[in-house]
């Protein structure tokens, strides 16, 4: 805040102050019937002094009190804008490992049947467990990794797991895989057949044959206990 200006007495103010003091002094010293002025004259003089004070105060304009104006805005504040939402990218499957030489038209994923346990028509008593096995060769150009599985695709599952891992290491082209699946001869007695394929790490089913699209299977006869 600004400091108030000091009061400086003017000539008129000094004259009026002296006049008022003399009247008051005269009223205190003299009485209405002594050598001093009569009370009517003193009262009239006091009223004149008061009127002069009022006219002087009205004529003097009030001193404006300085105020501190707020500083002008010289820069527009930065308004943050919302960033566009990030587009969600769906996860992609890991690509199948490949080796060179795939440009000859050989499929990436393909197997050939080499041998099996319990050939077609093998007989088992009803509700008897057996371990079916296939030996397959990797005849494609892609590596079979531990993420590959043998999967049941149709026919009789014979109480087996529908997805069965078959390797704990990479099997390169030209390598072999031994696949074993625990099964049970169904009840009632009869002829049963189930179809299987392999599935890659990125979910592609493949099998045997020239194009790698054919099934390999289990074929048994379940019979009553003798």
Blueprint (SSEs and pairs):
Layout: H1 11-29, H2 39-59, E1 111-116, E2 122-125, E3 129-138, E4 149-155, E5 163-165, E6 176-184, E7 190-199, E8 205-206, E9 216-223
Parallel strand pairs: 2-9
Antiparallel strand pairs: 1-3, 3-6, 4-5, 4-7, 7-8, 7-9
CATH class (first level) name of the largest domain: Mainly Beta
**Share in helix:** 10-25%
Unreliable runs, pLDDT <50, ≥5 residues? 1-18, 20-37, 56-94
**Class by alpha and beta content:** alpha+beta
The largest β sheet comes out as: 6 strands, mixed
CATH architecture descriptor text of the largest domain: Sandwich
Shape: flat
Number of helices: 2
Sketch the topology as an H/E string, one letter per element.
HHEEEEEEEEE
Tell me the count of domains. Answer: 2
Explain this structure.
This protein is of the alpha+beta class. It folds into two domains: 49 residues; 118 residues, Immunoglobulin-like, CATH 2.60.40.10. The chain contains two helices and nine strands, in the order H-H-E-E-E-E-E-E-E-E-E. Strands 2, 4, 5, 7, 8 and 9 form a six-stranded mixed sheet that branches. A three-stranded antiparallel sheet has the order 1-3-6, with no helix packed on it. Strand 4 and strand 5 form a beta hairpin. Helix 1 packs antiparallel against helix 2. The N terminus is likely disordered.
């Amino acid at each position: 805040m600004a400091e108030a200006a000091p009061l400086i007495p003017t000539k008129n103010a000094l004259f009026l102050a002296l006049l008022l003091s003399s009247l008051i002094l005269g009223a205190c010293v003299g009485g209405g019937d002594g050598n001093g002025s009569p009370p009517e004259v003193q009262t009239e003089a006091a009223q004149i002094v008061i009127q002069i004070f009022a006219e002087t105060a009205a004529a003097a304009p009030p001193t404006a009190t300085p105020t501190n104006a707020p500083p002008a805005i010289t820069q527009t504040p930065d308004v943050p804008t919302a960033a566009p939402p990030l587009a969600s990218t769906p996860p992609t499957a890991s690509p199948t490992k490949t080796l060179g030489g795939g440009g000859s038209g050989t499929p990436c994923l393909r197997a050939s049947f080499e041998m099996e346990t319990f050939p077609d028509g093998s007989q088992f008593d009803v509700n008897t467990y057996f371990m079916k096995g296939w030996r397959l060769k990797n005849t494609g150009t892609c590596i079979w990794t531990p993420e590959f599985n043998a999967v049941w695709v149709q026919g009789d599952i014979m109480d087996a797991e529908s997805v069965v891992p078959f390797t704990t290491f990479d099997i390169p082209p030209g390598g072999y895989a031994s696949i074993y699946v625990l099964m049970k001869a169904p009840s009632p007695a009869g002829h049963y057949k189930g179809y299987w394929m392999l599935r890659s790490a990125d979910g592609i089913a493949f099998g045997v044959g020239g194009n790698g699209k054919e099934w390999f299977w289990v074929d048994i006869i379940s019979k009553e206990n003798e």
